[in-house]
Specification:
Elements: H1 2-16, H2 21-37, E1 45-46, H3 49-64, E2 69-77, E3 84-85, E4 90-91, H4 94-101, E5 108-116, H5 125-145, H6 157-180, H7 192-202, H8 209-233, H9 243-258, H10 260-264, H11 287-316, H12 322-336, E6 345-346, H13 348-356, H14 363-379, H15 388-398, H16 400-403, H17 407-412, H18 417-432, H19 435-455, E7 458-464, E8 471-474, E9 486-492, H20 500-518, E10 525-529, H21 538-553, E11 558-561, H22 565-573, H23 576-579, E12 585-586, H24 589-598, H25 606-617, H26 626-645, H27 650-656, H28 660-679
Parallel strand pairs: 9-10, 10-11, 11-12
Antiparallel strand pairs: 1-6, 2-5, 3-4, 7-8, 7-9
Helix pairs in contact: 1-2, 1-3, 1-14, 1-15, 2-12, 2-14, 3-5, 3-11, 5-11, 5-12, 6-7, 6-15, 6-18, 6-19, 8-15, 11-12, 11-19, 18-19, 26-28
Length: about 675
């Protein structure tokens, strides 16, 4: 594991924008501290390319705000006492005065002083990185205190896949300058990738041929070794062959003996200190400049860490406490910030390597850290001649696994088109914006798709299965085969303020579809299966009461099936049973259907019919069938004729309390509604 960590740590340090030795420190301290706090036997903490690039962006932002020095001229007014030489008790002569002041008659002295512009006190890149890991650790500890590990569910697999692939694009363009031997200007902020590509095109004529040659050889070596040679060698060795380390050794040897750095201007890593770094406090004055960056890095680190932990759980068949892992990451970040390190998270490759060589506890990381410490103290100077282009090539080649995630789109498109859109938008937002902003917007888009899907709930009919005698979902084209006049309706979505109107519309559509396909003149009875509601809010409960009242006024028997105890408690805690007859609420669908089939609807009086018709005709959301709406004018006309025959009967008129003119007016209004509904 130490052998694998040496080239990887140095490469990640170059992405972060700090000296190479700090990449080795990052591979030592967090991994060592995780031994005491983590619950996973196989997770190995270390740098991650995407996190390193996000840290580099925060460092660049702070460095741009760093104060700079300049020379300023000031004038000092001297007195006669100041011009007397107190040791010799003599007055300075005019000649001496002129030499000091430049003017015999003036007591003003011109003084040049060093001044600083407004901004951050001069700081090193590693100081910004340690402050970021400190603040990220504090955020992760608070996430553990408030049990916010469920927030990682927002980082769906599609969001993280698109984000990681988009991050791989950022990493590629961050390292392409080193591969080609081109010095590109610093860029940061949303949309900086566009300017980086523009800078690359403008500087293509400055490509350094020796550097490109070394990069090409390194890339071919890694492709041949890892893609063709490694599968063959895996049968002969019990552990993976470290091709990266072999490439590093070859590169150092060739550069040193051929003097490539001096003769061909090949950029090398340079001197690596061999002393142990003393602990120091982070730069707390930088927190106000990096707060948002640290929050994005903290959440991203948690998401990646939990994702790796879930993979480890599945592969090695044991449980990892995700809540404790938040504390572990937080404490590791806070304590590691006293040493020169940059943000870390779990790496699946490191975890797999540890298991492949027989590591089954965190003591593997302990001995790996000790081995890395010996590398720094003893072998560090040998890394001086390592070409930077080899590290950049290794980083770009490592993105190959991320780019392979494009294959997920092929599997998502045929069935999961919403997940396909989330994956693609996460990738595009990450590429087009900066890493942190892209991830947050991708999460927002994923949440938005969830909200939109709740606005388009799925509804269906239930019918009795002849084989099992249970009720099952029935396709709408099979309704003609269903016997009886009981319509069982179910909507699979929360009944809340965002879906209440949709529920009413779907219920209306369902009754129309049932009436048309059944081709029966009998008035159907409606059973609403409430098991499809995960939860119901105040407006949803009001909608259920309103639907029951409207259907009852229209002469339609309505029943509810409620099995969830939470919804039953909600009914009893509110005025639901003051509107809905409690005998119309059942715990099983079969009981509701049995009662509905046995119940015979009583004929409605003229007054009740008119009242129901008028209440429904004046409602925006009508629950009448299309056939009933079309026949409504004739129905009202027949009622009007009956009332004309009873015009001279005072008792009948008192019972109906509706005049003939009102009925005819209702008839004309109903006819207009009929034509409008027919056109719709």
């Amino acid at each position: 594991m130490a052998v694998f960590s040496v080239p990887q740590g140095i490469a990640l340090a170059s992405i972060t924008g700090v000296p190479p030795v700090y990449g080795l420190y990052t591979a030592i301290f967090p991994s060592f501290l995780y031994i005491f706090f983590g619950t996973s036997k196989h997770n190995a903490l270390g740098g991650f390319a995407v996190l390193s690039l996000m840290t580099h962006g925060a460092i660049e932002k702070v460095m741009l705000r760093t104060a700079t020095s300049y020379n300023a001229t000031a004038y000092v007014n001297h007195t006669l006492d100041e011009l007397i030489d107190m040791d010799n008790d003599t007055i300075i002569t005019n000649t001496t005065l002129m030499q000091i002041l430049g003017n015999e008659t003036s007591f003003l002295e011109e003084v040049t002083m060093e001044m600083w512009t407004e901004g951050v006190t001069p700081v090193k890149q590693i100081h910004v990185a340690t402050t970021i890991i400190f603040l990220a650790g504090v955020i992760q500890v608070f996430m553990g205190v408030f049990r916010l590990q469920y927030l990682t569910s927002l980082f769906s697999e599609q969001v993280m896949s698109g984000f990681v692939v988009g991050g791989g694009i950022h990493v590629f363009f961050a390292q392409i300058g080193e591969v080609l031997g081109i010095r590109l200007p610093r860029r940061s902020g949303p949309g900086y990738l566009y300017y980086r590509i523009s800078d690359l095109i403008d500087n293509l004529h400055n490509v350094h041929i020796p550097t490109v040659s070394i990069s090409a050889f390194s890339f071919l070596f890694l492709v041949f070794g890892k893609e063709y040679l490694a599968p063959w060698l895996s049968s002969a060795f019990n552990y993976p062959v470290p091709f990266e380390l072999v490439l590093v050794v070859v590169g150092i040897t060739a550069t040193n003996y051929a003097e490539l750095s001096r003769r061909h201007d090949v950029k090398v890593v340079g001197n690596i200190p061999t002393e142990f770094p003393p602990p120091s406090l982070p730069r707390f004055d930088l927190i106000r400049h990096i707060g948002l960056n640290a929050a994005a890095i903290a959440i991203t680190a948690v998401a990646i860490h939990i994702t790796v932990a879930k993979v480890v759980e599945k592969r090695y068949k044991y449980k990892i406490n995700h809540g404790q892992e938040l504390y572990a990451l937080g404490f590791v970040g806070v304590l590691s910030s006293f040493f020169p390190v940059f943000p870390v998270t779990s790496g699946f490759a490191r975890s797999v390597v540890g298991a492949a060589v027989g590591g089954s506890t965190q003591l593997t990381c302990l001995f790996s850290s000790l081995a890395l410490l010996s590398v720094i103290l003893c072998i560090g100077p040998a890394l001086k001649y390592l070409p930077q282009c080899i590290l950049a090539t290794m980083i770009i080649f490592a993105q190959k696994g991320m780019l392979e995630k494009f294959g997920e789109l092929k599997a998502l498109w045929p069935v999961f088109k919403i997940d396909f859109a989330i994956w693609l938008m996460s990738f595009l937002l990450t590429v087009c914006y900066d890493m942190g902003e892209g991830l947050l917007m991708a999460i927002g888009f994923a949440v938005l798709t969830t909200i939109i899907r709740t606005q388009r709930p799925k509804w269906h009919f239930l019918s009795r299965d002849d084989e099992t005698d249970h009720f099952k979902e029935t396709k709408k084209r099979d309704l003609e085969r269903i016997q009886g006049n009981v319509c069982i309706f179910r909507m699979d979505a929360p009944l809340i303020f965002t879906s209440s109107d949709r529920f009413t519309m779907k219920l209306k559509a369902a009754r129309r579809r049932w009436k048309r396909d059944q081709k029966s003149d009998n008035r159907c009875k409606l059973v609403i299966d409430c098991d499809g509601f995960p939860y119901v809010d105040y407006l949803g409960l009001s909608t259920l009461k309103s639907v029951y009242a409207d259907l009852s006024a229209a002469g339609i028997q309505c029943f509810f099936v409620v099995q969830k105890s939470e919804l039953k408690r909600l009914f009893r805690a509110t005025d639901f049973y003051e509107v809905v007859d409690e005998s119309k609420v059942f715990s099983k669908v079969v009981d509701a259907v049995k009662v509905a089939e046995q119940l015979v609807s009583s004929p409605k009086t003229v007054k009740e019919t008119l009242t129901a018709l008028s209440s429904i005709a004046t409602t925006d959301t009508t629950l009448l069938d299309e056939e009933e709406v079309e026949n409504q004018p004739e129905l009202v006309e027949s009622i009007a004729e009956e009332l004309e025959n009873l015009e001279n009967t005072e008792e009948s008129m008192s019972e109906t309390s509706v005049s003939i003119e009102e009925v005819r007016s209702l008839s004309r209004s109903s006819s207009r509604n009929s034509s409008l509904n027919s056109e719709e």
